[in-house]
Amino acid sequence: MGDYRGVSETQDKSTPTTPEAGQGTSPAMAAPPVKPVIPAAAAKRANASVIGMIIALVVSIAAFLPIVLMNPAPKSDGFHPNIDVTAVARNAADVAGFTPVTPAAGDTFRPNYARWEAGTGTGVPTWEVGYLTPKEAFIGLVQTRKANPTWLLQQTKSAPVTGTRNAGGQEWELRDTGKGEKSMVLNHRGTTVVLSGEAQLDEFAVLAAAVVKSLDSHPAVTVSPSASPAP
Question: Within 10 A of 83 (CB to CB), how many other CB atoms are there?
Fold first, then answer.
């Protein structure tokens, strides 16, 4: 019995005592949490900055959105317009006063436009066809029966004559800007044909040979007042 009392006394001594009434708690436990207070002027400036950033972002998006919409990303499979050069040339012949060339350069030369230009600004009406080459370059074809030196300089970007190039059995005049773009010029059977672009000369030669073949398959152009194209 005495041993049990000893254990009880030891346990009583190790048990913590609660603070007596009136002693109170520590200052750290009694102090309420501090809440930061932002002056009204500072809060107003902060809100104004956020609103300004949002307005600037909206204005930027509004400015660039039309550009993005007008320049859609190309389709993954590529878009190739279906241009019937022969059909357009047939319609243009009624006002051209000559048979527009329709070079058959093979399926690898893909036309992306064909049109008749009345030449209201230049005074030189023209038949125009654009071709994408097998190497994904571009060659533009322009044909007219009213070529003049000023017009020819405009078409060739004032490039100097750098030599000649035989294609289709004809000697074409070669002009080179020295910046990648070049032109081949031929006066044949009453019209002038200008090929211009940044394609390689071997591709120029293929298209030029097809142009000569097309020219030779039609009668030579004879100038007559009734055949003049409308202004």
Answer: 17
| CB hemisphere CA count around 59 (13 angstroms) | 6
Nearest CA-CA partner of 195 in 220, 173, 166, 170: 173
Burial of 181 (0-12, 13-18, 19+ CB in 10 A): middle
Q: Shortest CA distance to 188 belongs to which of 204, 172, 205, 175?
A: 172
Contact 90, 201 (CB under 8 A): no
> CB of 176 within 8 A of CB of 182?
yes
pLDDT tens track for 171-216: 999 999 999 999 999 999 999 999 999 999 999 999 999 999 999 9
Tokens read off for 204: 């120029």
Query: Helical H runs in 73-222?
Result: 85-96, 149-155, 201-216
pTM of the model: 0.63
Closest C-alpha among 199, 197, 171, 198 to residue 185 = 171
CB-neighbour burial class of residue 127 (10 A; exposed 0-12, middle 13-18, buried 19+): buried
